[in-house]
Amino acid sequence: MDMTGTQRIEAPRDKVYAALNDVDVLRQCIPGCDEITKTSDTEMNAKVTLRIGPVKASFTGKVTLSDLDPPNGYTITGEGSGGMAGFAKGGAKVSLAPDGDATILTYVVNADIGGKIAQLGARLIDGTSKKLAGDFFEKFGEVVGGPPPAAVEAPPDAPDAPKKGLLGKLFG
């Protein structure tokens, strides 16, 4: 399975690259991350608990960074075992490009799974994988670049303000 995506992060490229290498930031952003420890400048051990359809499993594994090109990006690869649930391995090529004061993060992910979770079906696994990747990059953008701007509500008398119904008028 392969996925690609882009995320705009409201932070300079150097800060984004540093955050991609910070285990505390990664721990906050990886869905289901129970623990992650850095064993060297390019290797980490991680434990993640995930639910994929009806299967919930804890995966332990090793993450390796390669093709380091600060602050432009790197390749991250990982392999984990979930015991009877199966295994997962894959990698991502992460590229960072400046965009004014922000950074455009582009990723190309490939993944392979086996065991009991592989029997769940490609659509369920693909959907879950895309959701997990989306959740990671959304949270990463919030942690590194700050929360997304809040929606500003128009004053009640503004021309584009939504009209209140009868109950809204009665109860304010």
What does this structure look like?
With 172 residues, the protein is of the alpha+beta class. The chain has one domain (2-150): Alpha-D-Glucose-1,6-Bisphosphate, Chain A, domain 4, CATH 3.30.530.20. The chain is built from 4 helices and 7 strands. The protein has a 7-stranded antiparallel sheet, with helices on one face. Strand 3 (43-52) and strand 4 (55-69) form a beta hairpin. Helix 2 (23-29) packs across helix 3. The protein starts with a strand and ends with a helix.
Count structural domains: 1
Mind telling me which CATH architecture this is? 2-Layer Sandwich
Q: Distance between termini?
A: 51 Å
Beta-strand content bin: 35-45%
Radius of gyration: 20 Å
Strand order in space, largest sheet? 1-7-6-5-4-3-2
CATH class wording: Alpha Beta
User: Oligomer, anyone?
Assistant: single chain
User: How many individual helices?
Assistant: 4
Query: How can the largest sheet be summarized?
Result: 7 strands, antiparallel
User: Kindly state the mean pLDDT as a whole number?
Assistant: 83
Please mark out the parts with pLDDT under 50 across 5 or more consecutive residues, or reply none: 160-172
Order of helices and strands: EHHEEEEEEHH
Which geometry do the CA atoms define? globular
Number of strands: 7
What do we call the CATH homologous superfamily? START domain
Kindly state the percentage of residues in helix: 25-40%
